């Protein structure tokens, strides 16, 4: 009887020890795996985006910045009002390697319009007409930027049925490590404004974001509107500032991305 009892005790101890060893091994492997940072499959870089219908100005900016190898994404709105020459310039920019993307057929504030009339009507009135009109002219758009940056999670969910990536906006001059204007592998991204009427307009600050991106394998996302030599109105990005940032990015080995590039990463 004693031998049988001893064998049972020994068997129970073996089982308990085996479970403990297995649990410890799994915990150790999980902890080690969690400690390893995910490998980035893309080099650090910068993504310049511009909104609205300032096509002639974007075309002039490209003449200045092309020698730096820059690329940008142009989010177009009011497409039904564009001239033949403007559409031709958009094709020129697209052929240069830039992205042509959507910003609403009538530049409607998505949040206000959808709350008043519903998301389905917003999509039918401002998204589908834009995609159809641009597709007819040879622009297959895969990305979208919210007018006024007005968005919420429900809109994101519905618009991601029509686009690969959508861009919102973020503000403030805060520490680089706390900024939201980096690509993090998500289909919703946020750009930081570089028009000179924004309170965070500060070239040295923007360069700290580029430095942080390089050090941490990130992609900085900026957005502006009208690219001009002399910025004296709202929603204008000075060409001198843009050239300075492009030169800094190139000299520091940062890659220029478009919004559609992000969808391929």
From TrEMBL:
Keywords: Membrane, Signal, Transmembrane, Transmembrane helix
UniProt domain NodB homology: residue ranges: 44-257
Keyword flag Membrane: yes
Molecular function GO terms recorded: hydrolase activity, acting on carbon-nitrogen (but not peptide) bonds
Assigned GO CC terms: extracellular region
Subcellular location: Secreted
InterPro entries: Glyco_hydro/deAcase_b/a-brl, NODB_dom, Polysacch_Deacetylase
Superkingdom of this protein's organism: Bacteria
Transmembrane domains' residue ranges: 9-27
A Pfam family hit: Polysacc_deac_1
GO BP, sorted A to Z: carbohydrate metabolic process
Major place of residence: secreted
UniProt cross-references to Gene3D superfamilies, sorted A to Z: Glycoside hydrolase/deacetylase
Keyword Secreted: no
Entry protein name: Peptidoglycan/xylan/chitin deacetylase, PgdA/CDA1 family
